[in-house]
């Protein structure tokens, strides 16, 4: 989406904003809302839109660079959740969910041109389960945070069917500020011995100076950053999540 900034809220308006601020997040401090006009027309171009190319792949990959961030112990306690402490004691392994949604969108984008991104056939159950997960993840995100902007329709000369007008005034978080906040807290999860299982050892071990994980393999196409969210085929169920008491 291409944005045109038409005004910015002042500090008082941000503080008094009545949007979905009930969900605690340390990133709230970086969530500055602005009035913008989205450019969503079918034939309007931007850096992310279109078939795979080295340039487009690069901008999609860059979107996911801050997917892994350090989270403080205080934040976990405020959220009443636990997490995995990094082996250097610099924080806990976390991430903003928006980057997981972007990962899923990028994964689905890869399915559209499978020969470009993936070696897995569409009849591979694990591969397709990841696709279905990503589609439903985005569905839930859109329903949880619905875009309430109004769009209308118009007539196009020579066409009896109307077309939607999708250059829409909206209220959006300033992405650059939010992304900068995440980038300041991001880390390379593949750094040797940074993420260590208490019984099985390093999550991404290095042998003969080579990472022993498919997570950095370019052979599957959607490689770094974060190789399709670290090649996880399933997430932790609610029964696997421990709560602070």
Automatic annotation (TrEMBL):
Domain of life, per lineage: Eukaryota
Protein name per UniProt: Tat pathway signal sequence
Residue stretches of biased makeup (Low complexity): 235-245
Region (Disordered): 222-245
GO biological processes: mycotoxin biosynthetic process
Similarity comment text for this entry: Belongs to the ustYa family.
Basic and acidic residues compositional bias, start-end: 225-234
Species per Swiss-Prot/TrEMBL record: Aspergillus nanangensis
């Amino acid at each position: 989406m291409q944005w045109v900034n038409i005004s910015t809220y002042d500090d008082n308006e941000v503080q008094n904003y009545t949007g979905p601020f009930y969900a605690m997040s340390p990133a709230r401090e970086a969530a500055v809302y602005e009035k913008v006009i989205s450019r969503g027309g079918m034939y309007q171009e931007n850096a992310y839109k279109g078939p795979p190319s080295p340039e487009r792949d690069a901008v999609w990959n860059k979107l996911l660079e801050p997917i892994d961030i350090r989270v403080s112990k205080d934040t976990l306690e405020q959220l009443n959740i636990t997490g995995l402490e990094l082996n250097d004691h610099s924080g806990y392994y976390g991430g903003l969910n928006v980057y997981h949604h972007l990962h899923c969108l990028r994964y689905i984008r890869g399915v559209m041109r499978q020969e470009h991104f993936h070696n897995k056939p569409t009849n591979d159950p694990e591969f397709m389960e990841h696709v279905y997960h990503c589609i439903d993840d985005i569905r839930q995100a859109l329903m949880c945070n619905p875009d309430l902007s109004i769009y209308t329709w118009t007539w196009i000369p020579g066409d009896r069917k109307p077309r939607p007008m999708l250059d829409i005034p909206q209220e959006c978080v300033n992405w650059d500020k939010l992304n900068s906040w995440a980038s300041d807290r991001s880390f390379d999860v593949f750094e040797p011995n940074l993420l260590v299982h208490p019984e099985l050892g390093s999550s991404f071990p290095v042998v003969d100076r080579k990472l022993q994980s498919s997570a950095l393999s370019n052979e599957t196409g959607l490689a770094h950053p974060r190789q399709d969210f670290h090649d996880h085929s399933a997430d932790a169920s609610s029964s696997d999540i421990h709560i602070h008491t």
